[in-house]
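STRUCTURE:
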């Protein structure tokens, strides 16, 4: 199987530190989500809440949430605030996965190694759970518990709305669906994934800087990092879809080719796509010049994005 190796590659000690950090943060984000989506034992809405919890808890690497917390740590943001925003972006991401898996979209029965939400419950419940997760994500950001400054909260809400709507994730999904069965040019594929996947990953990085009330120049550097690491993630995903097993991925493998989608692998080949991912990871790391050792976790994450096997 092809594996992407960044140059320089993620060093063993850095990889071990990142794994430990990811595990700890994932647990903290999981706890925050568990609190924010509390179980409901009575009333007709209990089923949709169960579906919301099923879709968000008990799986996933929490890479987007990790990005929020890691960037926020550069600015000394209190952990409780960063974790609320991390939980919010994971809710938004989970909503997108629930809807992506529906028969009308990607029609996938497997997610994170478990039955997709619409298979575990039913299609109508899955749609409602996705809708509720999306709205809850914004409710969390708008709550003063996330940040006492209303301008910061508004900036978070505005940035997530742009990243997740027609000019971001939803627009990218539409381009993806429209592109099935026809050949897209490389520039079109880049734009597709910059919207569908990259926009939310960039938002996760931006959100940490927004929480930290970073100045405009620093925001731009964080945005450049998030943009490149988000694209690197998607290029690596295309390679994994073509080379990894369903057991490794936790979802159905080989679906891009089966659906006739234009991907980085289809246009560049596996080796060419791997090279593209390496370039993007290196460029993301370069954007962090000047942050010092405090940003080593973000540097390691950029390389991990293209070396992972799931």
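SEQUENCE:
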């Amino acid at each position: 199987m092809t594996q992407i190796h960044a140059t320089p590659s993620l060093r063993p000690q850095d990889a071990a530190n990142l794994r430990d950090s990811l595990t700890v943060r994932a647990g903290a984000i999981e706890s925050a989500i568990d609190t924010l989506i509390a179980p409901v034992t009575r009333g007709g809405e209990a089923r949709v809440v169960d579906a919301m919890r099923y879709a968000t808890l008990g799986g996933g690497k929490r890479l987007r949430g990790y990005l929020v917390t890691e960037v926020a740590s550069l600015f000394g943001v209190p952990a409780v605030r960063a974790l609320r925003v991390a939980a919010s972006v994971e809710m938004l991401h989970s909503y997108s996965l629930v809807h992506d898996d529906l028969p009308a979209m990607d029609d996938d029965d497997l997610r994170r190694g478990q039955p997709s939400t619409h298979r575990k419950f039913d299609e109508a419940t899955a749609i409602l759970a996705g809708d509720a997760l999306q709205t809850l994500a914004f409710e969390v950001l708008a709550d003063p518990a996330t940040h006492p400054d209303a301008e910061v909260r508004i900036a978070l809400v505005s940035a997530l709305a742009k990243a997740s709507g027609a000019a971001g994730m939803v627009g990218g999904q539409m381009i993806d669906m429209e592109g099935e069965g026809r050949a897209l040019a490389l520039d079109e594929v880049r734009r597709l994934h910059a919207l569908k996947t990259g926009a939310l990953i960039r938002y996760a990085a931006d959100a940490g800087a927004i929480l930290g009330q970073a100045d405009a120049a620093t925001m731009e550097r964080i945005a450049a990092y998030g943009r490149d690491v988000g694209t690197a993630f998607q290029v690596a995903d295309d390679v994994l879809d073509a080379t990894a097993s369903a057991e490794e991925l936790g979802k159905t493998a080989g679906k891009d080719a089966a659906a006739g989608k234009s991907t980085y692998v289809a246009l560049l080949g596996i080796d060419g796509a791997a090279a593209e991912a390496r370039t993007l990871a290196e460029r993301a790391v370069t954007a962090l010049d000047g942050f010092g050792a405090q940003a080593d976790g973000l540097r390691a994450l950029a390389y991990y994005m293209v070396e992972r096997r799931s």
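REMARK: The domain at 12-307 is CATH 1.10.600.10 (Farnesyl Diphosphate Synthase).
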